[in-house]
Design brief:
Chain A contains four helices and no strands. With 92 residues, chain A is mainly alpha-helical. The longest helix of chain B has 18 residues, at 190-207. Classes of the chains: A mainly alpha (92), B alpha/beta (291).
Chain lengths: 92, 291
């Protein structure tokens, strides 16, 4: 199954369960308080996911390693390489 | 110093010869470092390592387009780190008819380092990365293939790490990652980093690929694995590299990771405009819907 398929299936199952319980489609006779709790759940989950995403990307952005040392090492090696290559008869 | 050269045929369009070594090139004596296969010490160490490495040979594919400034430097670094490690290798330069004379530069390097180490397999015009890999694989005599950028953003010093990781778990693919461990970048502003992390986050959520860095292009593949994957991939640009990993997972290949540092464009311009972002998202959604 494709990833899209997995998402549709999962969302479909969860959404169906939620709708079924919230709107009492199966006539299970859930207490009013329970249904009042379930009703805004998808919105809450969406907002939670949004916060999680922002926090995760923000954290990863902040801890993105900055490799100044690698850049300096590369510059030094470039100089070394040019000198060595010229010595071997390379024409830049 | 004089460069003494024996008569060597123009190999840029020659068919591949089994065994790799065609013609002879005499080299100057080097005051520093190895890279001369004719020297007794180097050959002995190489043989020793070869026995240790079990006869593995690593082909490095370098597709180039207008890399006249970077090519000699990347080749020098590759030669240095490979010689130090003692593993057998070859560097295949696939130039797509660069107008800046990259091929001439490559020919000089071939003369200096030998045509068994530097293989020139140019093409007439810019034909794209996927076909460059296919073209390169056909001429590769190694059983492993490195793919990397020729613009010095990928550093050959990580090559021994890749090889070590591959041997550790007999991985089919070893992918360099900028996002884990000691990995990182240099030369990116905040906007670029944000786009990178944001795009990677979306990719992880949608594709759950099992690898932390999907758009990276510094990788080690077993040759037959690379061959199989390139045949299956249809995307272009960043998405091509993503598709390779996704297909590898589909085919149940094992993927290892090695932290690498990515130093953005020493020469030349880096590009990440709205166009690239849009085509990335389109490609991502396509992979999401079809794999």
């Amino acid at each position: 199954m494709t990833k899209l398929g997995q998402w549709l299936l999962t969302l479909g199952l969860l959404g169906g369960t939620w709708a079924g319980l919230t709107f009492d489609a199966l006539g299970l006779g859930l207490p009013e308080s329970g249904r009042r709790l379930l009703w805004p759940l998808p919105a809450y989950l969406l907002v939670t996911f949004g916060c999680y995403s922002l926090a995760t990307v923000g954290y990863r952005l902040a801890t993105f390693n900055d490799c100044r040392g690698a850049a300096e090492e590369l510059q030094a090696q470039i100089r070394e390489a040019r000198a060595d290559l010229e010595g071997r008869g390379f024409c830049f | 110093m004089e460069l003494v050269q024996a008569v060597s045929p123009d190999l840029s369009n020659a068919p591949m010869v089994a065994g790799g070594f065609v013609g002879g090139v005499a080299l100057t004596s080097c005051p520093s470092g190895a890279s001369n296969m004719a020297s007794g010490e180097g050959a002995e160490q190489q043989q020793q390592q070869q026995q240790q490495g079990g006869g593995d040979k690593y082909s490095v594919l370098l597709p180039t387009y207008n890399e006249r400034d970077n090519l000699p430097l990347i080749v020098w670094l590759l030669v240095r780190y490979f010689d130090e490690s003692g593993f057998d290798y070859e560097i295949i330069v696939i130039d797509d008819g660069s107008p800046d004379g990259t091929l001439e530069v490559a020919k000089q390097l071939e003369m200096i380092y030998g045509s068994d180490k530097i293989l020139l397999r140019p093409r007439a015009k810019k034909l794209g990365l996927g076909t460059a890999y296919i073209h390169g694989i056909q001429h590769a005599t190694g059983n492993f293939v490195f793919i990397m950028d020729a613009d010095l953003s990928h550093h050959p010093k990580f090559i021994p790490d890749f090889i070590k990781k591959q041997k550790e778990g007999n991985y089919d693919v070893v992918s360099g990652t900028r996002y884990k461990g000691d990995g990182g970048v240099f030369g990116w502003d905040l906007r670029r980093k944000l786009i990178s992390r944001g795009a990677n986050f979306v990719t992880q959520i949608l594709l759950r690929p099992g690898a932390s860095d999907l758009t990276g292009s510094f990788r080690l593949y077993k040759k037959e694995v690379l061959q199989k994957l390139v045949e299956k991939c249809v995307s272009k640009g960043y998405v091509f590299q993503m598709e390779m990993i996704v297909r590898a997972r589909q085919l149940d290949y094992s993927i290892g990771e090695v932290p690498i540092t990515f130093v953005d464009r020493v020469y030349g311009e880096s590009k990440l405009g709205g166009n690239e972002i849009v085509s990335f998202l389109k490609g991502l959604l396509h992979l999401f819907a079809t794999t």
